[in-house]
Amino acid sequence: MIKPNAKKVIKTLKPKINQECDQQSFDPASLKIFLKFVTGSDVLVCDAIDVAFTLTDGFESRPNAHTCGPLLEVPATYQSYSELTEVFNNILRNKEAWTFNIV
Hints:
Distance between the termini: 58 Å
Number of strands: 3
Structural class: alpha+beta
């Protein structure tokens, strides 16, 4: 018998995409933009992207990427998938706000 701990229980979870999510899949151009936001590269250069859910409010309650990891922090405070999708799409459309440029 295995003694439960948070890490073991989390590994047993198998997330499934609901129908609402399934209908809004990324096209190839959007996938490149998403990868660039999360990993810093528009090609798949890692085996996994970690996702952490945070309890943030206000201006901080937006998806945040740590490209060195790669880690995507997603606030758990959204009321619906549609609300998260709208915020995330706005971030991805405004590449100038998150693109790192060295002068």
